[in-house]
């Protein structure tokens, strides 16, 4: 920018800030110049008593939410000014164990964090950046020589930050269905090279295994496993004694909350999600008391009670915008952004806000939200599938804090957005079978091993007059039911395929196309 243009820009900015009122006489007293940068100021001030008022409403908000949704349990913490000012549990840990005192949720009950793990993990990376082990701009392949994506340039240039910001070009949720089939972390990461890529650094697509690849590079640079590194540089220094990045540790905690899904109008404990393959992205478990310590550290720019965990310079990129994650759909709308493991936005009050949600379709939902200008943050953990309960609570609390009232029907808004995540998938869901289907060929014609570089082999066998499909390293079995002609169906129920999901299996000569596994056009297997 030229000097005249820069000067004009400054003038325009100052005019916008001070207005265009009449010039004051020279003798008029002048107001002291604020030392706060204009872009850190909200025009909507918060009265001092408002914070206590908002906190006084939390118990009632939680009880109302739990009554309306029926979710079994929730734990909530609020931190402000370097202290935990609220920490409380509600409900029960496991619906199958009654409502006795030994089954109650308290502030030390351990929950699975799901994708809030990304934010926690980003602070582990920030520690390593502070220690000069890596930078956010370190190429992943420089620490993991075997790592590759489906483009030579991207392989050599994609950084830790690119993957934590979901801007690598990998497809949405790349690798998740491989995990569901039983592939381990290394096996999934090595298959990412087979996926098609969107334009590098100008595309946003949320990827658990992209984050996992970045974290694996950081761990390799540190010479430790990610699980050990997280414990060494974050959990132990913060005194997070109930926090771990290992699923086995979660199960071993006597006071842990089990997963629940909704079946009809009831919540049932049917599944328990094992996220070890993608631990950096979704595998942390913790209590609300522990997470309050972590939030306090983040709000203090990397310091906890005088102990430096990460430098402000290393942490700042994580909690500030790095990519547009939700483009504005009208000139009046505000865009959404993503940092490195954190969602970032400017809210209706003009304040910067950051946080993250987490959800397991198998039965966990979490959310935290932070207003750094007010030095306050709230986190809510639940043991129920994601229908918007934790997001509703944090939004209601921030409304009360900033406006003195709840402005929106957040429960309905979040339910509308999140409920479809729990819906069954597949083009045939809800459709009746054809009245007069074409007959199948002799079943032996379909039997064989069908190869696929990404998914691995699909083995079709005949057993007691029916076809069975075997997939994945653990040979998961699926019964094939005839639908019409050479098309069969099978059902799935996994983290990414909610109960009731139906996939077609269509044979054509020596090929087999599996609808559920064809999202990225990689679902055709060849015999």
UniProtKB/TrEMBL annotation:
InterPro entries from the UniProt entry: AmpC-like, Beta-lactam-related, Beta-lactam/transpept-like, Peptidase_S12_Pab87-rel_C
Keywords tagged on the record: Hydrolase
Annotated PROSITE patterns: PROKAR_LIPOPROTEIN
Domain Beta-lactamase-related intervals: 58-395
Signal peptide: none
Keyword Hydrolase included in the entry's annotation: yes
GO molecular function term, any single one: hydrolase activity
Transmembrane portions of the chain: none
SUPFAM superfamilies xref list: beta-lactamase/transpeptidase-like (SSF56601)
Superkingdom assignment: Bacteria
Peptidase S12 Pab87-related C-terminal domain boundaries: 433-499
Keyword Hydrolase applies: yes
The name this protein goes by in its record: Serine hydrolase
Organism annotation: Mycobacterium shinjukuense
